[in-house]
Amino acid sequence: MSYATAITAFAALLDDESAVPAGLLHAERMRHYRANCRINRVAALGNTFATVEALVGADFFAAMARVYVDATPATSANLHALGADFPDFIAGFAPASDLLYLADVARLDWSCWLGFLADDAEAEPPAALAGFAPDTLESLTLTLHPALQLAQSAHWPLADLLAMHQGGATADINAGGQALLVLRADWQQIAPARFAMYLALQQGAPVLAALEAALAVDDSAPVGEWLGWLFASGAVIAITEANGEQA
Amino acid sequence: MKLSQLPVSTGLGLRAPHVEAVLASRPDVAWWEVHSENYFGGGAPLASLLAIRRDYPLSLHGVGLGLGRLGELDARHLAQLRELVQRVEPAAVSEHLAWNQHAGRYYNDLLPVPRVDGVIAHLAGRIAQVQDLLQRPLLIENVSAYVGFAGEVIGEGELMAELHRRTGCGLLVDLNNFHVNALNLGVDPLAEVAALPAAAVAEIHVAGFEYFDGTAVDTHGAAVSAEVLALLDAALRQWGPQPVLLERDSNLGEFAELYQEYLQLALHVRRLEGNTLEVTA
To answer: Name one GO molecular function term (chain A) (predicted).
Structure first.
């Protein structure tokens, strides 16, 4: 038996209990590998989706995560990189269908996770923007730090739920939709206009267009202050002019 | 180049739930080992690791490269590992003789490599690739196994010795895994140890296992067994003093408990080395 044939036979049995255990000894023990893979992934999901787990309890979470893991082949060896589509799975998970907010909370957890683990990057100093005349704002774009993540729910109070999970007051689930930003382990609730502005910047819109996106939501939005906050917080890692050159 | 810069003393595996306690109390531990993948990315986890690195020797132990997988190694994983090694400048870098991917699907466990025709060339090529990338020796570790392969052509210890001979890699010998394989598959752990040349050995792992449905499973979730401690004694008599690591991954508990277990193991190793020196003097 060649090396590749042996690996392929092992993988076939790992994927499908009914596969023929060609060239394998004690093939009935394959269940231990299936169990290890499942346990490792379920535990990692509990770590990543901590607010979801707190809301539904450890037993329900583990049962839900197990169904997801069994239905979703892993796409990375790195457990920290798994779970991007878990929120969508939760949205369609019938036993959780009464918990209408759960998928949005899972999206928030994933945003927190991405922000927490994002690569380090050197920030542009607050003074960096001062060198540009106001009329260049329509052609400047900012690269935001990957540790800055945005989350928003149209219907559910994400910031209140996160605060509750971290020891704050009991959230009123009917308090309405909320937006927030995450920067590493820190987070804050933000106004919808500020969310619109940062989202536009994150998606590569020029600075002026992002400011206009905020003002379209709230025409008294303090957009200059919000822009300054990004620099003061180390959340801008590059400034690029429309011609493509880094400023 | 030396296989590692690890101190020849007892170290302790460090997991995320204990990092805060370690940074606060700076316990008397000779060196630490962490899983490399837990520090891919930046932010607080990496900053904590660098803070520990300032005060202690550190070993980076990979669990996700999958040296034995078919096809190419994962380019992003390699790039992240290289970045981490450059930032941390560890005393040792290690990976398992295992695979974790087939036909685009990943398996988040350490799957055993079939020691059939072609295994040596396959693994030697991947080890050389990683060593070229990192510009340093890689330590390779034997894994536990529950399922065996028919028609194997070489023993695990023999395979490790041959990979050292071909690539110059170091050997990270997990004695608990040899013991688990003895229980599950009937290998002779003393013969495996005897197959490994002292000059190639760079680190030893000990840990605990648990039984599930009559199979010994390498959970790193229990105390080190008496059989594994006896195997450690035999191994250290053969190879002389080595860096020895206590690993614990599940049933982690409070750091203070694990620290007591570590101190007991460190004392055991020091006494053994003292006795060994008396015998040979």
So the answer is: DNA binding
